[in-house]
Amino acid sequence: MIKLILSPTVQKIKADIGDIDVTPIVEKVVATMYSDFPFLEEKFGEKGKERTIEDNFYHFLYLNTAYKLNDTDTFIDYATWLNSVLVSRGLKTDMIIYNFEKIQECMPGILEPEVEKKFMDYLEAGIQKLKQSTNEE
Hints:
There is one protein chain. The chain is 80% helix and 0% strand. By secondary structure, it is mainly alpha-helical. α4 packs across α6 (113-136) and α5 (93-106) runs antiparallel to α6 (113-136). It is globular. The model has no long low-confidence stretch (mean pLDDT 92).
């Protein structure tokens, strides 16, 4: 397991998320991603890992925002926007879907059950939207 270095950006995102501690989930997700895709380390280095950590905290910020608003579309809009940004930088949609699926795999039992269920639902909606988008291209 990697130990996260919490950059000032991550510390701000954590503060914005509030009292939900997603750090253990992000640690598992990032460790799994870099284990499954060793080329990430080679291609993007330490800066890339920092960005991956930040991105995962942002995912939870938007999951939490959707939860507070009780609005699935908030997360779907985020997933769609994120996809357009990352694809323009050379990342494939499949990698975002993979990231969301890893969050789903690593999250069970860590958050409050009601929050976890909603986050799972929002992630699934985001995944389905991204899959739909790639099928339309």
